[in-house]
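Comment thread on ticket #2218

A.B. wrote:
> Attaching the input chain for the structure job we discussed in standup.
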Amino acid sequence: MLPAAARLTRSQDFRLVVRRGRRAGRRRLVVHALSAGQSPEADANAAPTRESSPRVGFVVSKAVGVAVVRHRVSRRLRHLMRDRLAELPAGTLVVVRALPPAADASSRELGADLDAALRKLRLVASDGSATGSR
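C.D. wrote:
> Ran it. Output below, let me know if you need it in another format.
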């Protein structure tokens, strides 16, 4: 389970990240990320700051499958992001959107897609350490 401080819960925050952030798509998921200082015109309550911890939200639509499948995908993604949370730069907001192929994917495959997307967004370095640059 993700700590409460690491969860993205407000719909305004999801909308901000998806609209103003960068994205990296893979076969099974799309990762949207908004780094601290990336969106200066954003609402002060929702905009990430360098002092805040990274926060993560998940979108698993009905296109992925029935409720049991969607919840399984959500649990796997939540577990994978919990392990990667410490690697993300402070103040980063991340939304992970599952695509229909995620329903049949193993945790290992989802983890590989997640790692590739985070590297493409330059949120983690190739060796897994956090990067503060863009």
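A.B. wrote:
> Thanks. Noting for the ticket: Residues 67-84 form the longest helix (18 residues).
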